[in-house]
Amino acid sequence: xxxxxxxxxxxxxxxxxxxxxxxxxxxxxxxxxxxxxxxxxxxxxxxxxxxxxxxxxxxxxxxxxxxxxxxxxxxxxxxxxxxxxxxxxxxxxxxxxxxxxxxxxxxxxxxxxxxxxxxxxxxxxxxxxxxxxxxxxxxxxxxxxxxxxxxxxxxxxxxxxxxxxxxxxxxxxxxxxxxxxxxxxxxxxxxxxxxxxxxxxxxxxxxxxxxxxxxxxxxxxxxxxxxxxxxxxxxxxxxxxxxxxxxxxxxxxxxxxxxxxxxxxxxxxxxxxxxxxxxx
Length: 280
Prior knowledge:
By secondary structure, this protein is of the alpha/beta class. It has helices at 2-14, 31-40, 58-65, 81-89, 112-116, 130-137, 153-160, 170-178, 213-228, 234-237, 244-250, 264-279, and strands spanning 27-28, 48-52, 70-74, 96-99, 119-124, 144-152, 179-187, 192-193, 200-207.
């Protein structure tokens, strides 16, 4: 491991790169692990891959070796420009697009490949922005088949949590409404450089059928109020909604329940009714 870390430092020094703490940069250089991550998303030869934050291109190289239909790299840190241009030139048969910008500022509707091809997202996400990135692409457009993202283990546990669990949250409900979420594997902190303080977890997100942007947006508001004060009963935490007591009764939801006791299905039914109310 010491020898491996020495190689990594030499590699970064050679390219005059210092990992930026402000951008949450923690890189994986272990080729076996990178290949394992790529293998977990299945065949990619018929898909366009969008990698968010490729950094020095370790995961990118494994992706390119598996010959995706095309690849789009979105990288905020321009110090990686030369490395990524050089890397993609080594795989001329894979059409590559490099976007040097903050993913949160990128207008996805202007990326032509998003409209035309079957898409898979992948990223070793910086911890500080991971949930924001996920929420930016939810709910998935019809041609997005999967997103495979690395999260801080604690965030991954929140995303996959079930009701009656302290980790069950607004994020759990929103993500589980529109996605099937599968845990792929955990990764120890010592495989990253620099080593973060916490372990990570790789999650796969695949779209559920019959989701609605209106219901998704309503859920975001609804769960914000519900989970703001978790100790309150659901009737009290949602007291700003006109007729909430009658609506809870209609949907057979115990008004004395707390936010963490309601299933995703019950939150969805509440959101559907609120959306319907606005339309009539």
